[in-house]
Amino acid sequence: MQAMGMRRAIILAGVMALAGCATVTTPTKGDPLESYNRTMFTINDKVDQYALKPIAKGYVWAVPEPVRNSVTNFFSNIGDVYIAANNLLQLKVADGVSDIMRVAINTVFGVGGLFDVATIAKLPKHAGDFGLTLGHYGMPPGPYVVLPLLGPSTVRDSTGLVVDYFGNPLTYVSPGSVSWALYGVNLVNVRANLLGATDVLADAALDKYSFVRNAYLQRRQYLISGGDGGMPDYGEAPLPNYGDEGAAVAVPATGASAAAGEPASGAAAPAPASGTGNTVPGNQYVPPSGFPSFRLR
């Protein structure tokens, strides 16, 4: 009993210390939930550091690179299905048709999507989810929020997660255990692809939370705007005015022009076209019902 009481006291002290480290008396303008967000960011970062990252490193050690690339291509091909649906909802007909062609070509000629033949055929890889669709039609993002285990988001993007879940073909795989296993493999594979990016983030960012927040918001606005104005610069920048319709993040004057992502606690980088060593855009990862997992962006 005494040992159990001591254990509880240590856990309680650790939680209080963790919360105290993330307390913000004066939140950054435009980030009203900063105190909560920093606490959740720290928790997510620790979960990633002690659970996901070691598993991902073991996966890289055990699985040959060609196999990992095929796994990446397989899940990327599945993600193209609902990326196409969102592009069509946004009336981006050319992009939607291109996405459908990618799925058809990679499924037929790429052995079920294991090989990315569509990129060789010069069909570009797009990004899309329902949060971007809502933003396309002028819905403001709302406050930035770090979700438990799922990482960076906004009120708008969190709402879109529900639709993303039902739009993901993996949701309908039976039995449920197979669906969970596929999501688990996808999670580990995505985390493995981001190992280099998170190492760069840890070395380059003085304040990882601010860097990830700005990178996430700028990346989302970049995707909503269709890439107008060039690639985003992931440095310190003014946060959006959440009262403005279609709120946007201003282009920063300075910053590190590195695309980095922190799964489970950070934002995902702009995803390169599918191919050797590429990553699956995090918005393609939505956990099945009741599955306590991670969402990567």
UniProtKB/TrEMBL annotation:
Q: Which InterPro entries match?
A: MlaA
Stretches of Low complexity bias are at 259-277
* GO BP term, example: intermembrane phospholipid transfer
Q: Which domain of life is it from?
A: Bacteria
One cellular component term from this protein's GO annotations in UniProt: membrane
Q: What's the protein here called?
A: Lipoprotein
Q: Does the keyword Lipoprotein apply?
A: yes
Q: Where is the signal peptide?
A: 1-24
Listed A to Z, the keywords are: Lipoprotein, Signal
Similarity section: Belongs to the MlaA family.
Q: Where is this region: Disordered?
A: 259-297
Specify the taxonomic lineage: Bacteria, Pseudomonadati, Pseudomonadota, Betaproteobacteria, Burkholderiales
